[in-house]
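seq:
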Amino acid sequence: MANPGGTERTKLNRISYKASHEVSDLYSVLDSNLVAHVALVQDGKPLVIPMAYGRVDDIIYLHGSSGSRLMRLLQNEPDVCVSITDLTALKVARSTFNSGMHYRSVVIFGRASLVSDEKKDEALNALSDAMIPGRVAEVRASTKKELAATVIVSLPLDECSVKISVNEVDDDEGDLNQGTWAGIVPFVTTIGEPIPADDEAAGLEVPASVRNLAKRP
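struct:
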């Protein structure tokens, strides 16, 4: 069961006021982003790789090619650390020391679990629909060859932390009224107009799943 900040490893000790223990905040960050940075240890050395992911209830799924070095490592079900960050603004203070960022972030600790061949198709469909809701129903089913070439691992949200930084600019009192500008520079990510892949696609209506991406929270 998801329990943000519920363990010693996920408890924020420094600037703890930025921690959120709300499951709704955890889901919001995970569901509004698509890329996770997955960290593990290979031969005693750290390795971090960006990956697409999808959340289904209290599990996130990661997938990739069976020929990938990372996926071969994940097949061994190692301990991993996964980080997702939603950058929302730059905080421009009257000094570089007090400048910073506004963001929402999630860090997940746990052991990767290999999804069995019997459940791989179901997991892949769930992952696909988590990223583009409704897309699975619009395309053909995965073939046995495609499934065999795909590795999927799951990671529970049992041990995770949520950090939200939305405070305004915090300038030192001595820096005020010195003629230096300060403020917030928002970061806004938008979904653009879909671009057809070829002449065939150009002659077809954009499917509902793609149109609805613009409504993604």
